Amino acid sequence: MNTILITGATSGFGKACAELFASHGWRLILCGRRKERLQELAGKLAGTPVHLAVFDVRDNEMVRKMYKELPEEFGKIDILLNNAGLAMGMGPAQTADLDDWETMVDTNIKGLMYMTRAVLPGMVERRQGHIINLGSVAGNWPYPGGNAYGGTKAFVRQFSMNLRADLHGTGVRVTNIEPGLAETEFSVVRFHGDKDRADSVYAGMTPLSAADIAETIYWAASRPQHVNINAIEIMPVAQSWGPFPIHREEKKK
Ligand code: NDP
Ligand code: 8X3
Question: What is residue 139's DSSP assignment?
């Protein structure tokens, strides 16, 4: 039986992946800060071996303790799904809240590095494993208000490709998943709990669903061992690009 460790399993993509991988017979290590949510999810996955780990990915001591204290049958991790992450705020850089920027850097960049550094040596030793990271279209394309969030996801993309370079010859695979607009709790978190504003993001269009992303992740994970999917960028059909805006000075009369 294969084992997947999922960060951010209490909601959205992480929760959908827990359900999908469980249905394919995987053993799960489910992580997040909201213990009750993890317990509720585990309760729905009858018959699946599940280990729950309640911790904050921003705390490297907690990450290392979690890894060290894994029960023996969960110790050989086949997939690390670095999914925990968030956007905070969407205002312009010149007025953005620095605390929001630091939270995004600490979670999306540092948390992902701590998790990777903890799990990777075991994978290399076993010459088998797969790191799957959650990037974003925001790491590939600029948009107004994307500032630090897009910056953290650009880090995730480059870190993923650099991991591949370091892992050359080890048999360990790395994939960066780069979704566009998907309806989860993402926008509620981004807009600091403003549910109406979050709902307006998805009004009048069909966004990606958590299940769409879970299926994409499962597909990348279930390719034959000699195949590495480097990156997958995926958007809802209703989302694309616009023309470059040009600022024009008003003519003086
Ligand atoms: P959700 O808000 O639904 O889920 C985010 C998950 O991350 C939660 O389970 C949350 O768990 C966990 N998390 C956040 N901060 C921490 C932390 N400090 N320590 C541990 N866990 C944490 O969002 P999504 O499912 O949409 O997002 C998942 C990933 O996908 C993120 O990295 C996001 O940036 C990325 N993404 C999302 C897109 C979208 O449009 N939805 C598009 C592109 C990428 P808890 O609060 O319980 O700790
Ligand atoms: C989130 C996707 O399109 O809101 O990573 O930036 S988008």
Answer: G
Our answer to whether residue 143 is catalytic in this structure is: no
Ligand nearest to the CA of 60: 1
Check pLDDT > 80 for residue 253. Answer: no
pLDDT for residue 223 is more than 80:
yes
Residue type, 133: N
Ligand 2 centroid to Cα of residue 181, in Å, is 5
Cβ atoms of 84 and 14 within 8 Å: the answer is: yes
Task: Tell me the best of 37, 114, 134, 208 to mutate to test the pocket of ligand 1, counting ligand atoms within 8 Å of each CB and taking the most.
Answer: 134
Task: Report the DSSP beta bridge partners of residue 78.
Answer: none
Residue 73 banded pLDDT, cuts 50, 70, 90: very high
Q: Which two tokens stand for residue 42?
A: 């585990």
Domain residue spans of the chain:
3-234
Residue with CA closest to ligand 1 atom 24: 12
Q: For strand 79-82 and strand 231-234, is the pairing parallel, antiparallel, or unpaired? A: unpaired
Model-wide pTM > 0.85: yes
* CATH architecture entry for 3-234: 3-Layer(aba) Sandwich (3.40)
